[in-house]
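User: Could you write out the 3D structure of this protein bound to nicotinamide-adenine-dinucleotide? I've included everything you need below.
Assistant: Certainly. Input first, then the structure.
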Amino acid sequence: MPAASTASVLHQVPIELGDRSYPINIGAGLLGDTATWTGVPAAAQALIVTNTTVAPLYAAQLERAISGRHQAVHVVALPDGEEHKTWQTLNLIFDALLQKACDRKTVLYALGGGVVGDMTGFAAACYMRGVPFVQVPTTLLAQVDSSVGGKTAINHPLGKNMIGAFYQPRLVVCDLDTLATLPAREFSAGLAEVIKYGPIADMEFLAWIETNIQGLMDRDATLMAHAVRRSCEIKAWVVAQDERESGLRANLNFGHTFGHAIEAGLGYGQWLHGEAVGCGMVMALHLSQRLGLVDAAFVQRVTALIERAGLPVVGPALGAHRYLELMQVDKKTEAGEIKFVVIDRPGSAAVRPAPEAMVREVIARCCSAA
Ligand code: NAD
Ligand code: GLY
């Protein structure tokens, strides 16, 4: 007799996009449970896209759980790391699909963090002009942000996430159990994106994170379930209103203009994405204060929380010239004018340009000396 399932969906957050709507299922023991996958489109073939770190941890479990839904389940393990979010690595997914003669109904399962998720989504958008895919995020960052909302991309040496597509998954499955194997540094990086939702959208959530930061760092299961749920709810609300980032969705990039410059400037993979975003939020807060939008106490409050989450709050010494050069290559830049997501009042964000002298002051205030 098969063992009774211990899987449980604790929360379901819908992404409302008309006929492209899908659920985010958040819970425990989901990955290895066949019931988790019943909503996935029927297809003869499936390809699990993962990486060399995650494959030995979770690929066999997922493969077993979905084997009843597909006649053949293939696995491709990509090299691990932000520095591999490239055309060359993307091609490994296409190689696997073509070598196995996968047809246009083939389902791709993205098993891993944001790097695997973004690349798998982009491959799914392109292969035969579009095949279905499912997000199975295994990092905190991917569960609270990157797996949700359909942004897919690879990096270019000159700019982060510059080549990509909007392409929605059919289902997102956040199995909180997978977070148990996540290294501490990666966990903190994920907390940066959780904290982000407070200043831009929900001051009650910010206060809740402040109260519970130690429990979150200890990965308390109940607290984690709430943090993932509330983050996904906020992101779902934003994406439903502005899927293709013509306005509101840009607010989700709070900290990212400075953060992407840090990542590209140091070389992808030196600072984790979440670390760069955490420090980028500190810089964007200082910019907001200089623009007269928030006071010093608010900047200090959020900075202290970012620090308590184990994240760096002092930027690397790239020099103001290099920061400005890198920030020119940003998706919000228009006609050469760099734009920043600023906090226009606690719990609300807006996209604004800023005088170059002010940006230089922020870099001088927030970064190590070049
Ligand atoms: P990542 O994908 O590199 O994963 C971090 C590390 O953790 C990797 O070494 C990975 O192999 C490992 N790992 C993954 N799951 C694990 C587990 N359960 N146990 C042990 N190790 C595990 O990084 P990330 O922080 O998940 O994602 C960052 C990426 O996401 C960036 O490329 C960023 O641009 C992208 N992103 C995209 C969006 C979006 O909307 N599409 C939003 C935010 C970030
Ligand atoms: N992480 C930013 C977005 O999804 O728009």
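The chain has two domains: 9-181, 184-366.
User: Perfect, thank you.
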